[in-house]
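S.,

Sequence below, as promised.
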Amino acid sequence: MSSSWNSVGLEVLYQVIGWIAFVAWSFSFYPQVVLNYRRKSVVGLNFDFLVLNFTKHSSYLIYNAALFFSPFIQKQYHDKFGDKEMIPVAANDVAFSLHAVALTSFTLYQVFIYERGNQKVSKVCISISAVVWSAAIVCLIVAWPKSNWLWLIDVFNSIQVAMTTVKYIPQAVMNFRRKSTVGWSIGNILLDLTGGVLNFGQMGVQSIDQHTLVNFYGNIGKTLLSLETVFFDVLFIIQHYVLYPVKRDENGKAIISERVAPLIRPSDKPEEDSV
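The prediction came back faster than expected:
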């Protein structure tokens, strides 16, 4: 028999914190989307970050949805950690993952329709993504005969943890090289940081109620996700406000000192027929 909440108050607090975290994390995608739309440009947004972020959220969705909806996988979880332990995935986790995959996909779409200068996805990023998904397929083949589904989704959970670490690095390095964060939305970071802190707090509430830390290491991916998010978001905040503050002209527009190549040069445009 699975465990239930000991305190109704803590259960309500758990749900409230979880859904606030969902709102913060979900809305964190929109500042970048809106910024891209207003500028009609994705210059300054690292494409490696987007591709790796898509891999990360897709993996996290597989983990969350499988553990939340599958009674068979839940049984395997209880067999491993004990019948009294609660499933460490909440409805808001699944909702967030679905939303994250959708918004990341839309941001990737913006890359194709807006000015992107000479930016492109690096070969390293393509290689990492290919290796990760190839490894996932191999793990699926290994897990299938004995129905080791808990092990398989733990693999996807590990993938999302690794991608969370890797995905931020290209953007941080790009900001460092440009000595600028123009094109990279700070609103995204502030909301992301809020979600990370609340996500960690939600797990803490469950631990207090259950008098155990199993949910922290039973869902190590969620734990590390929160810690990694906080670390990198603080780094980006320092880059934006301390190291590379935005310089603006008299009209309040950001000054971009780097040269940006347009997608279509004047010489590439077909000449109109003379009438």
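Confidence is low (pLDDT under 50) at residues 258-275.

Coffee later?
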